[in-house]
Amino acid sequence: MRLSRYFLPVLKQTPAEAQITSHRLMLRAGMLRQEAAGIYAWLPLGHRVLKKVEQIVREEMDRAGAIELLMPTLQLADLWRESGRYEAYGAEMLRITDRHERELLYGPTNEEMIAEIFRAYVHSYKELPKNLYHIQWKFRDEQRPRFGVMRGREFLMKDAYSFDVDEEKGRASYNQMFVAYLRLFARMGLKAIPMKAESGPIGGELSHEFIVLAQTGESAVFLDKRMLDLAVPGEDVDYRGDLSPIIEAWTRLYAATEDVHDADRYERETEAANRVTARGIEVGQTFFFGDKYSVPMKATVSGPDGVDRPVQMGSYGVGVSRLVGAIIEASHDEAGIIWPEPVAPFGVGIINLRVGDGACDEACETAYAALTAAGKEPLLDDTDERPGGKFAAMDLIGLPWQVIVGPRGLTERMVELKRRASGERRTLPLDEALKAICG
Ligand code: 5CA
């Protein structure tokens, strides 16, 4: 992408309304624009990151055997009356009436709708297990939307739903998702700590919240510091095998939530020497709730004995849009964002310090073509901005690499290569810089 043709409205001033770093940086880096309280337009740079995060989530869901579909944002109120949640959900639900006076709602989650789809088509245990997921916008009319995409009203969520014939198999499906979660957060450069959780309005007894540690997090956590070094299951995890040892190793060290009672319980369960207090951001939550929805909604399957039974369900959410903010909270410095490579909007920034200078333009075009061909998605700053402004903007948007091309260096056939994360700079010939980036 050439910056002169792109749409990247970076702000020089710090926006007054932003209270936390990620919100401030997303506004300054031209990623996001607020359209109403808790409702945002994703500008091109933000949109690229959102799509990368979404794709990692999708790949790990697919790897774990989940199947993607897409359900609508609007749902019929009657569907929610079946489960009893239409009234229970309260003021957070955005209720809508259409021209025929039919009652609808903007979906805050999809347990009811997926149970409705399931019961229409699946009737036998032989078709199980199944795990269906989608990545779709949700709406929750939060009392206090704040911190930008962290607590929005409209937000992008991945929600997966597992269906099994009995509780044991249902728990095995839950464990598969648990491991997939550890992996998908790790792929984004995050360490997400699973904590035993209350299930709230979703219901059920078995639930974990996945928390990314960050100073600005909304949840206070008490955790065993050994968790910080616990390995994340690698590529070799066999989802068909028994995952309980991995779950065991993690849940043995789970932390408690801000609930004081949990903190008390935790006190008893762990040695004080290993305990640390921290703050964190909830980037995902998993639930196993058995027949909570399948009983009222009559989603049943016949078992091997020919007898019908309610299907055993779990649900698994990831806050896709919240993750973009969480990654920034976990990875930034005074100058701006530091994107982990897998989610960076562009892989490399090329800075042309003197646009119009034949040698500079040519070296930049060479770099641009080679990096594009290598799949590194370069962003070429070919604008007339002053060098100082170019450096500041490039640091702010946080691409992993910068290639800086100026007339002085080029007289000795040299460019500068900067690593955004460490700040390390090297002066070297262009082809060597390209080799260093492409590996
Ligand atoms: N049906 C279940 C799982 S699919 C569910 O809705 N779970 S949830 O309520 O925990 O939401 C899943 C994830 O969405 C949360 O872990 C969080 O990361 C994200 N999320 C929830 N509310 C918001 C919000 N207001 N703004 C941004 N992200 C949110």
Could you please describe the fold and organization of this structure?
The protein has helices at residues 21-28, 44-63, 77-83, 85-88, 111-121, 167-187, 244-251, 260-269, 320-330, 358-373, 387-397, 407-410, 430-438, and strands spanning 32-36, 39-42, 67-68, 74-76, 94-97, 103-106, 130-139, 154-164, 192-196, 206-213, 219-224, 275-290, 300-302, 308-310, 312-319, 332-333, 336-337, 348-352, 378-381, 401-405, 414-419, 425-429. Helices cover 32% and strands 28% of the residues. The chain is an alpha+beta fold. The longest helix has 21 residues, at 167-187. The chain has 13 helices and 22 strands. It is elongated. Strand 1 and strand 2 form a beta hairpin. Strands 3, 7, 8, 9, 10, 11, 12 and 15 form an eight-stranded mixed β-sheet that branches. Strands 19-18-20-21-22 form a five-stranded mixed β-sheet, with helices on both faces. The protein binds 5'-O-(N-(L-cysteinyl)-sulfamoyl)adenosine.
Distance between the termini: 21 Å
Parts with pLDDT < 50 across at least 5 consecutive residues: 256-261
Radius of gyration: 24 Å
Q: Which structural category do the helix and sheet elements fall into?
A: alpha+beta
Q: Please count the helical segments.
A: 13
Helix content: 25-40%
Strand content: 25-35%
The small-molecule ligands in this entry are:
5'-O-(N-(L-cysteinyl)-sulfamoyl)adenosine
